[in-house]
């Protein structure tokens, strides 16, 4: 009990701040909703509603873990795919490939009072990212890629992500391991992990970012007793690239996140 009371805190921030952290914690979790949708190739609209709880921690020094509970919402039709923090416009889709225009909100960044070590730092804001994405399904695995730019103008950065996953079904259960790599450019790293001259103090020196790549491994377990109901558990571990882990603001070279959720499909 002591570990939990000192290591975790329940979100008591504003709703936008909670959504920002939640977007990072379970940005991959809505894929659990897609498992049953894969068996339904019709163009009819599909809704999903549920609830999720995520346990996550940003990489900044002395920042507590957050426990966040927020609704899960998904919507899919022939032209649109939407879930928490992401909206896709399908430019071209068939059973194997889907090319998309993507709008995604990422809750990167911090406020100075999020951690004692960040006192005196200027706020780093989360951003809306816009770009292209492609999903490619093969008999061996599912592949996805995206290239996004910061449309909010906070970092003016770019990011790209490649991911591969495969679901192994067993009755009502499914296990989906995944591997991913995300590249972020110099502007992204400099904005979110850099230290400006006006922000320097003892133990927090000037730091300029460079482009880097983060590696991620994850595992999702889902249980669907019927087509409409899904319960999932998702685990994720991220290893930061050298330009991020070398920042004086970062306390660990890696981070982990856990989320659980329930989704009902209409």
UniProtKB/TrEMBL annotation:
Localization in the cell: Cell outer membrane
Signal peptide, first to last residue: 1-33
Keywords: Cell outer membrane, Membrane, Signal
Coiled-coil annotated residue ranges, if any: none
InterPro entries associated with the record: MipA (IPR010583)
Tree of life domain: Bacteria
Gene Ontology cellular-component annotations: cell outer membrane
Pfam family, one: MipA
GO biological process per UniProt: peptidoglycan biosynthetic process
Main location: membrane
UniProt similarity note: Belongs to the MipA/OmpV family.
Protein name: Putative outer membrane protein
Source species of the chain: Acetonema longum DSM 6540
């Amino acid at each position: 009990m002591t570990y939990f009371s000192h290591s975790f805190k329940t979100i008591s921030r504003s709703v936008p701040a909670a959504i920002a952290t939640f977007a990072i914690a379970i940005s991959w979790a809505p894929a659990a909703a897609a498992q049953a949708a894969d068996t339904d190739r019709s163009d009819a609209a599909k809704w999903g509603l549920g609830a999720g709880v995520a346990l996550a921690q940003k990489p900044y020094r002395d920042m507590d873990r957050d426990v966040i509970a927020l609704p899960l919402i998904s919507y899919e039709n022939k032209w649109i795919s939407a879930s928490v923090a992401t909206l896709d416009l399908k430019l071209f889709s068939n059973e194997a490939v889907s090319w998309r225009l993507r709008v995604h909100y990422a809750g990167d960044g911090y406020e100075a009072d999020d951690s004692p070590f960040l006192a005196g730092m200027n706020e780093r804001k989360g951003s809306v990212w816009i770009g292209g994405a492609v999903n490619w399904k093969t008999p061996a695995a599912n592949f996805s890629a995206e290239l996004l730019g910061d449309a909010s103008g906070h970092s003016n950065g770019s990011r790209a992500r490649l991911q591969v996953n495969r679901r192994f079904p067993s009755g009502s259960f499914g296990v989906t391991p995944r591997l991913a790599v995300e590249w972020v450019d110099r502007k992204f790293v400099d904005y979110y992990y850099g230290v400006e001259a006006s922000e320097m103090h003892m133990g927090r020196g000037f730091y300029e970012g460079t482009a880097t790549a983060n590696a991620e491994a994850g595992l999702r377990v889902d249980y669907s007793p019927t087509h409409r109901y899904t319960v999932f558990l998702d685990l994720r571990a991220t290893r930061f690239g050298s330009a991020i882990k070398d920042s004086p603001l970062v306390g660990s070279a890696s981070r982990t996140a856990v989320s659980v959720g329930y989704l009902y499909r209409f």
